[in-house]
């Protein structure tokens, strides 16, 4: 599903150049649940943003579902991103003046689906994350865990091949973090490929494979004896 080789990325800050990714190689098969772990500033978000086609590498190759991503023109890249990738962020990134249902339906609006279909599909995804009763509520009427569930439903609405989550539990307490990871495990059990960025070892342990990032390189890539989230609560 994902194949990257010799990926490099630097940021220019004034006269200085910060070399963040220094030759990353890894691949992810369809259906995997992988965490990318590393301390703050190790380049996790930089890597995830490149995988999510939100940013481009300076060097190296990135093949997503058989397509070389480099040098795609802007329009095709955007279509590709909308069709293949779903995003979940630490800060939820919900639209504050739209209800839970309308937030989930938004990607379907951009994909041009008719209103009835948008609402039906959005509702079914809200049901999936256990929030059908909260469809008409605004984000500020929801708890952190509920907001993240809405964001997960929204990410699923466009039926992406790969779900990319950047510190999805970073703003949540421990119990809620485990519940959100439980949901992520459940979505992966249904066959969806998921990458989770985290700096927390406990969270990474709830995926199937941990890729450890340090000083711009992968220093460890190992399978996890998966702990079910429920066992931790
Ligand atoms: P992580 O997600 O692991 O905390 P990041 O990928 O966000 O790490 O950042 C890696 C390094 O790159 C950090 O030192 C950060 O300050 C720097 N960095 C990230 N984004 C930018 C940017 N847009 N411009 C300049 N430096 C950046
Ligand atoms: Mg980050």
TrEMBL record:
Residues 2-233 form the ABC transporter domain. Keywords: ATP-binding, Nucleotide-binding, Translocase, Transport. InterPro entries: AAA+_ATPase, ABC_transporter-like_ATP-bd, ABC_transporter-like_CS, MacB-like_ATP-bd, P-loop_NTPase. GO terms for molecular function: ATP binding. Pfam families: ABC_tran (PF00005). It comes from the Bacteria. Belongs to the ABC transporter superfamily. This is ABC transporter ATP-binding protein.
């Amino acid at each position: 599903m994902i194949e990257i080789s010799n990926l490099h990325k630097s940021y220019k800050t004034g006269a200085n150049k910060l070399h963040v990714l220094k030759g990353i190689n890894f691949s992810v098969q369809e259906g995997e649940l992988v965490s990318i772990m590393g301390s703050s500033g190790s380049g996790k978000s930089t890597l995830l943003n490149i995988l999510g086609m939100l940013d481009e590498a300076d060097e190296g190759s990135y093949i997503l579902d058989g397509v070389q991503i480099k040098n795609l023109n802007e329009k095709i890249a955007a279509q590709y991103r909308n069709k293949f990738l779903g995003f979940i962020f630490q800060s939820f990134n919900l639209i504050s003046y739209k209800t839970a249902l309308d937030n989930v339906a938004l990607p379907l609006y951009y994909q041009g689906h008719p209103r009835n279909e948008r609402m039906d599909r959005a509702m079914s995804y809200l049901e999936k994350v256990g929030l059908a009763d909260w469809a008409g509520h605004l984000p500020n009427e929801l708890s952190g865990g509920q907001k993240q569930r809405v964001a997960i439903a929204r990410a699923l609405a466009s039926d992406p091949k790969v779900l990319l989550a950047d510190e999805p539990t970073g703003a949540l307490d421990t119990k809620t973090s485990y519940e959100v990871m439980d949901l992520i495990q459940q979505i992966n059990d249904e066959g969806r490929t998921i990458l989770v960025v985290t700096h927390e070892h406990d969270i990474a342990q709830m995926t199937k494979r941990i890729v450890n990032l340090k000083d711009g390189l992968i220093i460890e890539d190992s399978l996890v004896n998966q702990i079910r989230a429920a066992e931790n609560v």
